Each structure stands twice: as structure tokens, then as C-alpha cells.
Amino acid sequence: MAIDLDGTLLDSDGVLSARSREAVLGLLDRDVRVAVATARPARAVAQLIDARILEAVDLVHVDGAVVDRLGDEHPRHQRPLPEGAARTIADLAAHALPEARVIVELEGWEFGSDRPGTAEELWRYNSATPEMVLPVDAAIERGPVKVAINGIHASVDGLAELLAAEFGDEVRLLQHRIGSFLSVVAPGVGKRSGVGRLLDDEAEWGTTVAFGDDYSDIELLEACGFSFAMANAAPEVIAATPQRAPANDDDGVAQILEGLIARLG
């Protein structure tokens, strides 16, 4: 099972409700394998979900660029951006959207920022403490897996066009339903590829359950045998699968999971 966080398992305030927490724990107690699949890095996930859940799930994070498989001797799988791409992306973003925040993600904990800010700002925007943040140039030298651009309420559509013209299929652009966010990852990277690293056989896609609400969830929902678009999902996501879950603010994932738990006994 693969569950997105924002707009899916979490409510609109980014909070994991008690009902949703108990539903996920109920699955884990029945030895159902669960993956959290999110655009967020591990440092943010650790603040958003219960510690008991975090220690018992696979983690597909940073838009699928990093995968931590529970129980593996060497759990982390990473897909870095092509060499030199992060520098060009950061420069183009600074030119096209000078007011934007640019984050250069590494392994999900450390990152580079063009606006490191105060400790309070780091926590608010990045779920980070000062020792996690590096200068952008230092992060770029370490083989980043993603560049995230937050337009701060400005549209990133123009920047996405510039990057598409510059790189073609050398990188992958992941736009979000909130039009001020853009993620740039390596070609082929996404939640589907990340979850795929957790499967031992292609046939397992047919029995995998997924929940999502945003554009980056679509290919994962289409790949899984049992997929639920949240009632609050983007129209394109709803069109990708015939099955619906109630809205995130109505504990929609929990409602579906409770039915599954009842069948499992």
C-alpha cells in the first residue's frame, strides 16, 4: 500500500488526525506493508507522522528520488540529477523568479538553500534546523537529487517552460496543483518508480493499493491495481482512477482503511 501525505493522509492543515493514525497503525499491526510516498523530504515526514508509523513503513520521499526500504541492510536508493543540472536550474530560477525560494535536496535531511534565513524560518519552511542547511553551491557539489522552487505565490509556469527548453528530457519537471511549486528531478524519477523499487515482482502492482490527490500521484494510481483518488483531488487525478476516497478533511484514507481492516479481522 502506498499513501501520499499532503492532501491525502494529512488534513488541510497538514495534521495527521487521531483517526487516520489509528487506521494506519491498524494495518501495520496486521502485517500489511505500507509505504509513505511523498514529495516531502524525510526531515519533514518525521515531523508530520507518528513515530510508530515512521519506524514501520517504507519511505518514498523527495518525489521518489530517494527510497528507504524498511529492513534492508542498505535501505537507501537515490537517483541524482544529471551532473551540472542543479547549477543551471538554480541560476535560471534566480533569473526568472528572483523572489522564489530555491531548495537543493540531498538525501532528505540535508539541503542547500539560497535563503537560509533564521532558525525559525528554517523550521517553518523546511522542517529543518540550522545544521541541516548548506549553501546552494556546497549542496550542488554533493550530487543533489532534486531542486525545488517555491515561487512564493508567483506562478512557476514560465520557469517550467524555460527549463523544458533548456533540458528537454534530460530532467523531469513535476508541477503541483498549487501553481507556485515546481520540482525538478532526474528522468524517470517519480512516486511510481520509487514504489516500484519496493516491489519484488512486477505482478505485485496488481495487488498494490494507492491513495493520492496531486498530479505527481497520477502515474502511481494508474499503475496500482486498487487506486483511490481523494474527493479533494485535482480533476486530472480524479479522472485517472474510477475509485474515490472521501476528502482528506473527512479522514478519507482512514475510512477506506477501516473497511479493509474489518475484512482482515
Largest sheet: 8 strands, mixed
CATH top-level class of the largest domain: Alpha Beta
Please trace the helix and strand order, writing H or E for each element: EHHEHHEEEHEEHEHEHEEHEHEHEH
Q: Which topology of the largest domain does CATH recognise? A: Rossmann fold
Structural domains: how many:
2
| Rg, alpha carbons | 18 Å
Number of helices, counting only DSSP H or I runs of 4 residues or more: 12
Return residue spans where pLDDT drops below 50 for at least 5 consecutive residues: none
Order of neighbouring strands in the sheet with most strands: 5-4-3-2-1-12-13-14
Q: Alpha-carbon distance between the termini?
A: 18 Å
Helix content: 25-40%
**Annotation, overall tally of beta strands:** 14
Classification by helices and strands: alpha/beta
Global outline: globular
Give the CATH architecture of the largest domain: 3-Layer(aba) Sandwich
Overall pLDDT level: 94
CATH H-level superfamily title of the largest domain: HAD superfamily/HAD-like
As a percent range, the share of strand residues is 15-25%
